[in-house]
Design goal:
One of its GO terms (biological process) is tetrahydrofolate interconversion. By secondary structure, the protein is an alpha/beta fold. The chain is built from 4 helices and 11 strands. The protein has helices at about 15-30, 35-50, 70-80, 150-155, and strands at about 55-60, 85-90, 95-100, 110, 115, 130, 135, 140-145, 160-165, 185-190, 190-195.
Length: about 200
């Protein structure tokens, strides 16, 4: 497994952090041995289990590229009787909605190739949102792809439990933050849980 650099550049601007974190994440995933990615994603799902136990509904996401896949966690949640939702995005300026989805249901391509439930799937108000990220820090600040979908959705759901989902190498000493960025309650990686 590749060892990440000890720290990022001194430039804490969001665009610079995104570029470095994306490159770091993608290099990490490409360096994994065959089967190792699936094993690590299953390990992350095991760490998530206690955090979602008792939830009625959890919003996950369908991974793109080097993002950690939620597949094993979705399967575990569904097996435990927890309703699953996925984000649905129609356009950059439109709000992200969480729609009901179950393993085996059809996914359709949406904004920028995001695989999502069909637009007429029932809306869900989740108890817990599992958010993808490019990076996070010990203060549970998260940096995403930059479109702001999750920050807007989480701000509209103030009582939802917010859990970041990513690789342990995505943790950095500090993440650039703006006043509108919504902090997480915890982050789950293949190595364990930060916060909680």
């Amino acid at each position: 497994m590749a060892v990440p650099p000890p720290s990022m550049s001194a430039d804490l601007s969001k665009p610079a952090q995104r570029a470095e974190l994306r490159a770091l994440r993608d290099a990490f995933v490409l360096a994994l041995a065959p089967g190792e990615r699936a094993r690590l994603e299953a390990e992350a799902a095991r760490h998530l289990g206690p955090l979602i136990a008792g939830a009625r509904s959890v919003a996950f996401y369908h991974a793109l590229g080097g993002e950690m896949d939620c597949g094993p966690a979705i399967d575990a949640a569904a097996a435990a009787g927890i309703a699953v939702a996925l984000p649905h995005v129609e356009a950059r300026g439109a709000p992200m909605r969480f729609l009901a989805w179950a393993p085996g249901d059809r996914l359709v391509p949406g904004w920028r190739g995001l695989l999502q439930p069909e637009a007429d799937s029932p809306p869900v108000s989740p108890d817990i949102v599992i958010a993808p990220l490019l990076g996070f820090d010990s203060a549970l600040r998260r940096i995403g792809q930059g479109a702001g979908f999750y920050d807007r959705a989480l701000a509209a759901l103030p009582d939802v439990k917010k859990i970041g989902w990513g690789w342990s190498i995505q943790q950095r000493p500090a993440i650039a933050s703006d006043p509108w960025d919504v902090p997480l309650d915890a982050v789950v990686t293949e190595a364990g849980v930060i916060g909680g």
